[in-house]
Amino acid sequence: IDTVKIYQVPFYVGDVEGCITLEDILEVASQFQQELPDTGCMFLSSSSSLIIAAVVPYHKTFSISAHEWVSAAVSVVPTPPSTSGSDTLAYAVITCDPDNCIFPIKLKDECRGPVFALLRRRGLVKDEDEEEDIIYQFPDD
């Protein structure tokens, strides 16, 4: 949370270790929202399932909803699960299915691509190469 506070990012995507239930990850998202009420956040946790939860402040739901954000994340799954929640809080649970090569730890990384692509497409985050260069001007002596 401290790093997110320092850089004041508008949206944050992170891994949560040790969250083995949906209730656990929703609690983490709730705590994050209390600490940083202006930051949209998505958390991914993999154990026997991949659990994805997103919280988007109401004033940012006009740009992206939590439901849209989670739907983008699960779009990489061959048979995407339904997402639950609202514009401000949404989640999905993807169950491990070794017979169909669905492994939560592998999917966790694959889900990030469409998540960031959606944020970039909507102009909500910048690509690294779009970052503004700092221009230093020194007075002529």
In words, what does this structure look like?
- The protein has 141 residues and is of the alpha+beta class.
- It has helices at 2-7, 22-35, 66-74, 104-121; strands at 11-15, 40-46, 49-55, 84-85, 89-95.
- Strands 1-2-3-5-4 form a five-stranded mixed β-sheet, sandwiched between helices.
- It is globular.
- It starts with a helix and ends in a 20-residue tail after the last helix.
Quickly describe the structure.
The chain is an alpha+beta fold.
Question: What's the shape?
Answer: globular
- Structural class by SSE content: alpha+beta
Low-pLDDT segments: 133-138
Residues in β-strands, percent: 15-25%
What does the radius of gyration come to? 17 Å
Q: Total number of β-strand segments? A: 5
Main sheet characteristics: 5 strands, mixed
Fold blueprint:
Elements: H1 2-7, E1 11-15, H2 22-35, E2 40-46, E3 49-55, H3 66-74, E4 84-85, E5 89-95, H4 104-121
Parallel strand pairs: 1-2
Antiparallel strand pairs: 2-3, 3-5, 4-5
Features:
alpha+beta; 5-stranded mixed beta sheet; 4 helices; globular
